[in-house]
Fold these 2 entries.
Entry 1:
Amino acid sequence: MAYETVLIEDAQGVRTITLNRPQALNAFNETLKDELIDALKAAARDKSVRCLVVTGAGRAFCAGQDLKDRSDRADQAGSAGPGSFSASLRDKYNPMIMTIRTMEKPVIAAVNGVAAGAGCSLALACDLRVVADKATFIQAFVKIGLVPDSGATFLLPRLVGMGKALELAFTGDPLDAGTALTLGLANSVVPGEALLTATMDLATRLAQAPTRAIGLTKRAMNRALLVDLESALDYEADMQEIAGRSPDFAEGVSAFMEKRQPRFTGQ
Ligand code: T3D
């Protein structure tokens, strides 16, 4: 499959998938979601790929759902209301997250810049995170009246603890790279210009390790700590369907488009 929105590069057993919509901070439009799922599945199947790296082109890792794309879809449907959030999550985002978590090879996020909304979830779903010093992690969902999704309600508290996870989810405040390292969310933090070299050093090392043992280790740790991930993803989809139909979501997206502060009513 020829891709429009992802770049693929292979070197020394390491496959790098680069999200490539820099003009929209690599936000997920439908094409990017489809192509990323396809690229992840291909990497999972390909025995010559012994370590996978996911990164973003330009200044961002990924800004989550493309909010402009969603409003286009609503306009086309002739309705001010959103499309089905639960279907969007079950059909696209959740398979993306499950493919990363179930592939029996290491997956490293090279977090080159801001990781927001489902873009943050994508980074959380990876096994390891090498993070540029200027990068931030943002649970942006609350800023538009939504619920953390794509595994964030499940993975974030397991990485940083319940109290910090709730703080990040309730406030939508950015978590800087240094704090992410202290909390254990980042495995290492490097200057931005050294990110790809540092990531490739680690990825090449892992690609030369016993992949079968690493895959089985991942499977065992998934079972020890993440056995309910699939049902959590499903539950998030139900919660998002409710939040996505709220007046506060409509206001949140309008405010984002109009580049102003939202006026939430609590509805
Ligand atoms: O919908 C479903 O299917 C359910 C699933 C939902 C999953 C989700 O991910 S919901 C969360 C969606 N994401 C967000 O709410 C994040 C929105 N973006 C931001 O908050 C900020 O852009 C950032 C914090 C990520 C970065 O801020 P900053 O100041 O560095 O950049 P900027 O100026 O805000 O953005 C630069 C451009 O990217 C700008 O376009 P312009 O004005 O230059 O033409 C901005 O509109 C665009 N952009 C940023 N994020 C998105 C986006 N365009 C579309 N969708 C985005 N998510």
Entry 2:
Amino acid sequence: MHTLFISDLHLHESRPQITRAFFHFLRTQAIEAEALYILGDFFDVWIGDDDDAQLLQEVADELFALKDKGVAIYYLHGNRDFLLGTDYANKAGMTLIPDGTVIDLYGTPTLLMHGDSLCTSDVSYQQFRTMVRGAPWQTQFLAQSIAARRAIAAQLREKSESMNSMKADDILDITPAEAQTQMEAARVTRLIHGHTHRPARHPLIINEQPAERIVLGDWHDSAWCIKADENGVELIEWKI
Ligand code: MN
């Protein structure tokens, strides 16, 4: 048996080839897994679980079919889809888990994050993150009509070109010392995250033990996943 991890698909109506590649991945690779972890920015934007866009229904149906076949699906929030709630998660057969969850991955304690919280040198982003993750902002945002929320989301994407960009150069990398601190505190020897669109395996020493930070890639011209089993972990890339 094995476990799969993906992140940063940035599913959106404007990128149907990514949705197709994801459905193919579910039907071929994920169907063989015991669990699938989605580590954020699965959707390019999320305005609320009441969004009735067809893409969201199709993705929920595909995920639920996978869950029905016995694959556990876990989901943690990215910086673009952090408003995804339990209504949609239930519809898609996914279990929401907090950013920073530690799992026992075939004997190796493994910390799971999206990665944006590790970008501590971006002070203004961290302030924004704290605001939008809080109840007052979310309540106020979700109280607006779907049309109004769509307009705000479109405006936000337009305002900041980098928010709309998929290039790693336009996304700040994490602060390595912050990853070190979080891994030491969680007492893990492995961290898996996405967000930066810089897929790589970084060897580390954590609490005097050999450790590793593995970064997932985004889905663009290539797709990425991590496959873990009793023999270890692999970071896998394939062309879309
Ligand atoms: Mn992200």
